[in-house]
Structure formats: C-alpha cells, structure tokens
Amino acid sequence: MKVKYFYQQLASHFSVIIIAFLILSLLFSHFVEQFVYDNKTEELASYGQSILKDIEQDQRNSRFILRSYGDVLEGRDIQYSLFNEKSAIIYSTGLKTPLIELNEEEWRALQSGKAITVKQEFKRFEQAVTFVLLPYFHRNEFVGGILLTSPLKGSREIISQMNGYLIYTTIIALVIALLISGLLSTVNGRRIKRLQSATANVAHGDYSIRIPTSTIDEIGELGRDFNKMVEKLEASAAEIESLENRRRQFMADVSHELRTPLTTIRGIIEGLRNDMISESEKERGLQLASSETMRLIRLVNENLDYEKIRSNQVTLVKQHIQLKELLEVIQDQLEETAAERDDQIVVDVAEEVSVFADYDRITQVLLNITKNSIQFTEHGTISLRGLMQENSTVIEIEDTGIGMDPEEIEKIWSRFYKAIDSRTTNPYGEFGLGLSIVKQLVTLHGGTITVESEKGKGTKFRIELPDQEPLLE
Q1: Spatial contact of 75 and 109, defined as CB atoms under 8 Å apart
Q2: Residue ranges with strand state E in 209-280
Q3: What angle in degrees, to the nearest 10, is found between the helix axes of 359-375 and 323-340?
C-alpha cells in the first residue's frame, strides 16, 4: 500500500505530540495530585498538633478548646475526633462510629509515637478522604490520639481543572502541528518530486538536468550529490562517445592501412604467379612485399604491445644506462628518416648523465617520440637533451615543427587518436597508438611525461624518471 509523504509526516507529528502530551499529562497530574495531598496532610498534621498542645496546656478548658477548633475547622471542611488508648472516640465533630478502626500495624506505630497519614481511603469512610492520625502522650504515657479528616473533593477539582487545561493545550498544539506539518510536507514533497522527475530524465539519457541545492537539510545535500553524480555521468558519456568515435575512426584507419599493403602484396603475388613481372622487377616487387608485410606486423605488434602494457603484463629489467650513448643510438637509427624530410637530429647531453630504466622499453619510448617529431617537422631540427636532477633524470625531445593547440595536447595520449596530418608512411605513430604506449611505459617506470607546444613554433616532450627504485614502506 502506497502512503504519501504528506500523510506520513502528519501521522508522525500527530503521534509524537499525542504521546508526548499523554506522558506529560500523566506526570503533571501525578505531580499536582501529590503536591495537593502533601499540602493537605501537612495542614491536617499542623492543626492536630495545635489542638493537642492547647489541650495539654489547659486541661480544665479542654471542651471549650475542642469546640472552638471545631468551629474554625468546619469552615475549612476539616473534621477531627479524639480517642483514648482503647480507640474509643471521646470527642468528634463528624464521625458517628464509637471506635477508631485501626489495624494492628497502624495501632503499634501510633503507640510508638509515629504519625499516620493516608492520602486516599474509601473503605472506612463514606467518601474518599485524606486523614491524619497523631498520637497523644501525657507525662510520657500514651493516652490516645486525634484523627483529622478532609474530603478529597476540592483536591480532585483542582486536578480535573489542570487536566482540562492540558487538553486545551494539546488541541492547540495539534492544530499548530497540523499547519506546520502540512507546510513542511508540501515543501519537501515538491522537492522530492523534483528529484524524482530529474532521476527519470537521467534514466532516459538526459544528463543536462540539474536541481536546486541547499545545505539546510539532507534533501538539499542529496540534491547536491545528485548534481555531482549527473556531472560525472555526463562527463563519462562524453568520454564514451569520444572513445567510440575514435574507435570507429581507428577501425576505419586500420581497414585502410590493412587494405593498402594487402592489395600491394596480393598484386605482387599474382604478378609472380602469372609471370607478369619481369626478372628485372622481381627483386623490387619482393622488397615491396616484404616492406608491406613488416608494416602489417607493426600494426599487430602495436596493438598487442598496448594491451600487454595496459594489463601490467610487461616486466621491466631496469639498469643504469649512459644516456648519451642511448641518444646517439636513436640519432643513428633515425638519421636517414630525418634526412628524407630535411631534418637534423642534435644530441646535447653530458657524458656522466645516466638513466635508470629498461633498455628496450626506454629505447621504444625515445624512438616513438623522435619519429613523431620527425613526422611533424620539415626543414627543421630535433634536439635530444638530457640532464641530471636530484634523484631523477630528465630527457627532453624538442622539435621546430608545426606544433599543437592546447586542446590537441590533451588528446594525443588517448588511444586511437591521430592528428589529421599524421597519415603518412611513418613506421611509428601511424595507427594512433604510439604516444598512448609511450605514456603507459613512462608511468610503468614510475616517471612523468609532459608536453609544451605552440602552434607553428614546435613541440617539446619532457620525460622525468627516478634514478632508483622507490623504497617500499
């Protein structure tokens, strides 16, 4: 069964108020009743002691004293009776019975000099009364006592009046609670409905929805968390869409890259099979087929390499490597490729500079970045520099090529990303995986890689690697 939030709020407020006032009424009634009864017994005990004291001081006029007190106490609706040591009544202003009915325990307490007070009594008298029994001693000898009684009618009227006030207060509080609860329930109900509607929109793929937030209560904080969640979902959706677009572009590029060498290889094979290629051209055709085959192998290897690195299946064998020697190897391997674009590779590093890394993987990183620089540089210079810092080695690869915009720098590390001008026959970077692999390998070494670039003025890659293994805590 569905119960609206409005009615839940009303029920909870009413329940709390009713229970609170019931408990308060019981406690207050008990307190007032106890207070009235205590005052009444103190009053009766005070009158009883005065009567006994006056009688003790003036035995001859005891009758006159008793009548005088009777006239005074009658106006206060108090009656009293004197009785002897055998509980026989010797003077009374109200009781018609000849004896005072006391049980053995009460009688022994009275004879020992203790006063007896009873707040309610229904059996011995015709109505509910408060009575007090005081012992009377003459020359240290028990000779009787005095009984004072007062009806409970006036006390109960006071208690009933107080309960009436409590009932009126409860009704007023319930009305106020109804108004406040209704207002709060309506406001919070609308806020919850707004949140529910926004959730439904998100479920249908609308990540632009936002709801008002506040810090005054949990619903406001929930709205703030909801907005944060939607922002992350929106960013994730944009990233997924971007990745999917790059994946589709990558598949199109791969298809193009595969189709071209496969078509070339197939044409050469068909030409050789049907003797359509002359003897003088066979060697050239086989060389072209071999070159295209290596190109396909590189494509497959780059994908496999990326997945191995990403899944931490690569084991690094780190050692201290002389950086100048390593950079000169890069220079020698790529000198011919750079010359094709009229580029010059310059090495600038001191003899004593070393790098702590896996030789094959750091070579792969440097080859990848340097070839990428050659790819986007024409009639320029690629500088390979190295220097030692405290606890680290810095390698810089800077070119004077076409450069990049700031927004493009953020994209170059993404898998499948390829700049528009990068579709060349360059062996590395042509499939959009080269720089992504570079970043993974540098991170695997515990290092960092950053890029500085300006459109039309060139690009600088900066790699910083620690010169030793980090200490395990």
Answers
A1: no
A2: none
A3: 30
User: In whole angstroms, what is the distance from residue 445 CA to residue 439 CA?
Assistant: 10
In contact, 261 and 293? CB cutoff 8 Å: yes
C-beta atoms surrounding 329 within 10 Å: 15
Collect all residues with Cβ–Cβ distance below 8 Å to 458 and sequence separation of at least 6: 377, 380, 398, 399, 400, 401, 402, 403
In the three-class reduction of DSSP (H, G, I as helix; E, B as strand; rest coil), residue 338 is classed as helix
**Any idea what DSSP says for residue 423?**
-
391 class by beta-carbon count within 10 Å (0-12 exposed, 13-18 middle, 19+ buried) = exposed
C-alpha to C-alpha distance for 252 and 384, rounded to whole angstroms: 34
Question: Residues 422-456, buried b or exposed e (16+ Cβ, 10 A)?
Answer: beeebebbbbbbbbbbbbbbbebbbbebebebeee
The answer to whether the beta carbons of residues 416 and 379 sit under 8 Å apart is: no
- Is residue 387 a contact partner of residue 350, using CB atoms and an 8 Å limit? yes
Q: Confirm if 406 and 370 have CB atoms less than 8 A apart.
A: no
- Rounded (10°) angle between helices 434-444 and 279-310: 40
pLDDT band for position 48 (50/70/90)?
confident
- Dihedral, CA atoms, 225, 230, 232, 238, nearest 10 degrees? -170
- Ranked by mean pLDDT, which of 52-66, 156-170, 180-194, 376-390 comes out on top? 376-390
pLDDT at 429: 42
